[in-house]
Write a structure and sequence with these properties.
The complex is a heterodimer. Chain A is built from 17 helices and 8 strands. By secondary structure, chain A is an alpha/beta fold. Chain A folds into 3 domains: 79 residues; 190 residues, no CATH class; 177 residues, TPP-binding domain (Rossmann fold, 3-Layer(aba) Sandwich). About 2% of the residues of chain A have low confidence. Chain B contains 6 helices and no strands. In chain B, α4 packs antiparallel against α6. Classes of the chains: A alpha/beta, B mainly alpha.
């Protein structure tokens, strides 16, 4: 196969990847989009094989590698629980990062194979691109591993703050840049591995101080990094598919980080600087004062909802932790049978990653056209008879809207307090991630349902069936 | 919202044009000797073409990703994960035709890692997308 034809086919593969993302603009076109993505990948791989014409031994190794990796990937994809998607995506990011490092290392030791010169005489330009790609790849690798450990609960979600961490990070970054300059002019293998070591350290140090509450931003940011790393390697190999994909993934991750930051009213810089949010809000902050809380039972909730015309359900991550989504859908089915209009309202940061709550609801067979985003449904709470909040907290706190002194002031919230009655399922009066008391609990039209989310919904279901 | 998006896009354009200017300046200094041959043929360094594609792809990505419905942001992340593993092409070349044992080893590890991601990423995306159903009427 000629180089020209190969370059053309890589372009085709890049366009197919664009179509794959384009398909995600609507659930009905999304499955077709995913097929475009797979075809694009197949085109890129086959083109490379026809272009390179590996020896028989090389071909055996390639098939073996794809079989080992592909088999592992397929098993993971089939077994993973939907609640564990954030961890899985973080783990996958780390693999992209490490793969970028490996490809760059291979390119350094066998530049002829990748068409970038010979050992000791790789083009200066290729060296710059390679070292940038490898640095971002290594940062993505360790950063994603830390994010994975935090999301998976193997490491505390509390921010770990080293003394002088900003100074350490800046010093590391400066040395890293110097190493890249040195490597680009000398092609020293020692400097190459030093760049990798420094970047690995930097990746870990950057993510360790970031708390559990900010993980949706971190996961999106690492998604972006993995894209830039791929683009860096793409420039080295002068491969169009890789350059286009790197740009797509890089901008996609950046946009998602921006959306997540906006959903929490946090600036990107303050997230990166870290130190916000822990595993759970400090317990024992239940300063009731003389404020009273209205408490209800499952029977009260069932009665209220069955006689309502419109119920809006507000699920949060707590619902997923309690595995209450299936019971919740049964509740919604019963309500619909009784002629009640049921809608779901999703806050942008309702899960542990962008769009996580939508996947969890889809898994419980909730139709996607009953699920609405914050901007589309917020005006409807005023006409709703019941807002049913389950497993969410901070995203419903009216203080974010009304109280200028609140630390979460300015964060977009779901206006559940405007519904005629707000039913709030919660285990206790503890505060949420942000560690802030929710003034909603003490409003006269709020009824607290103190119980485990799943148990409460099951009891409501029973009460409604009677 | 729309207004903000347009504003963001304009800002992005400004930054991109500055970046292109910078890149052009650096190209001139960076590697005259390497690209002399190509220069002689076309007059322009091939890096410029690749960089142009890169910049345009960022813009395509920007608009395509903003049009992704928020309900599908998780599948978006898993599919971008899968496609960024197209880095496998570098690993394939290293495993297939490099003469150095070390390079083959690195390439092989890269190949296995990228394959986990390709298969895992596309299949888990497919599994998620299959769950999105419309209301039965």
């Amino acid at each position: 196969m000629s180089e020209t034809l190969a370059a053309f086919l890589y372009l085709v593969s890049g366009v197919l990847f664009i179509l794959a993302l384009r398909g995600l603009s609507h659930p009905t076109t999304s499955r077709q989009g995913n097929v475009f993505g797979m075809v694009g990948m197949a085109v890129a791989i086959l083109t490379t094989l026809f272009l390179a014409r590996p020896s028989f031994g090389g071909l055996v190794l390639i098939v073996l590698g794809i079989a080992i990796g592909g088999g592992t990937g397929a098993v993971i994809a089939r077994r993973i629980a939907m609640t564990a998607m954030p961890q899985l995506v973080a783990a996958f990011h780390s693999l992209v990062g490490l793969a970028a490092v490996m490809v760059a290392a291979a390119a350094l030791y066998a530049p002829e194979a990748l068409g970038i010169g010979t050992v000791g005489a790789i083009h200066g330009e290729a060296l710059v691109e390679m070292s940038i790609g490898v640095a971002i790849g290594a940062i993505t690798f360790t950063g994603s591993i830390i994010a994975f450990l935090k999301l998976d609960g193997r490491m505390s979600g509390k921010p770990i703050l080293l003394p002088q961490r900003h100074l350490i990070n800046i010093a590391l970054a400066v040395v890293l840049v110097l190493c890249i300059v040195g490597f680009a002019t000398s092609e020293s293998h020692g400097l190459f591995w030093l760049i990798i070591l420094l970047s690995l350290a930097l990746g870990g140090l950057l993510i360790v101080p970031i708390g559990g509450a900010d993980m949706p931003v971190v996961v999106s940011m690492l998604n972006s990094y993995s894209g830039w790393a791929a683009a860096g390697i793409g420039f080295t190999l002068q491969n169009l598919a890789l350059i286009i994909t790197g740009a797509l993934v890089g901008s996609s991750g950046a946009i998602l980080s921006y959306i997540m930051c906006r959903g929490m009213n946090r600036s990107f810089i303050s997230v990166i600087l870290g130190g916000f949010g822990g595993d759970a809000g400090p317990a024992g902050q239940e300063d009731l004062g003389d404020r009273t809380v209205k408490q209800g039972s499952a029977e009260d909730a069932a009665y209220l909802m069955k006689n309502a015309a419109k119920v809006i359900i507000v699920p949060g991550y707590g619902m997923a932790v309690a595995q209450a989504q299936h019971a919740l859908r049964e509740m919604a089915d019963q309500l619909k049978q009784a002629g009640v209009e049921v809608k779901y309202a999703i806050h942008p940061v309702a899960g542990r990653m962008p769009g996580h709550m939508n996947v969890l609801l889809a898994e419980a067979n909730v139709p996607y056209d009953e699920v609405f985003e914050l901007e589309d449904i917020n005006s409807e709470f005023a006409q709703a008879d019941v807002a049913f909040v389950i497993g969410a907290n901070d995203v419903t706190n009216p203080a974010a809207r009304d109280d200028k002194s609140s630390p979460i002031y300015g964060m977009p919230i779901l206006n559940v307090d405007q519904a005629a009655t707000c039913l709030f399922v919660k285990r206790s009066l503890g505060s949420g991630y942000a560690g802030i008391d929710n003034t909603l609990f003490y409003k006269p039209n709020t009824m607290m349902l103190f119980a485990d989310a799943k148990k409460m919904v099951e009891e409501i279901n029973k009460a409604m069936a009677d | 919202m729309e207004h903000q998006t347009v504003q963001n896009a304009l800002d992005g354009l400004d930054r991109a044009s500055v970046a292109i200017g910078d890149a052009r300046a650096s190209i001139v200094q960076l590697h005259e000797p390497v690209a002399t041959a190509v220069h002689a043929a076309t007059g322009v360094d091939p890096f410029v073409f690749h960089f142009a594609i890169f910049v345009l792809a960022i813009f395509v990505g920007y608009y395509v990703v903003w049009s992704v419905t928020p309900a599908l942001h998780t599948p978006l992340m898993s599919v971008t994960n899968a496609i960024s593993s197209v880095i496998v092409v570098g690993a394939l070349l290293a495993v297939g035709i490099s003469a150095s044992g070390l390079a083959t080893t690195f390439g092989f590890v890269g190949l296995v890692l990228a394959s986990v991601n390709i298969f895992g990423g596309f299949l888990v995306t497919q599994r998620m997308l299959a769950m999105y159903r419309k209301k039965e009427k």
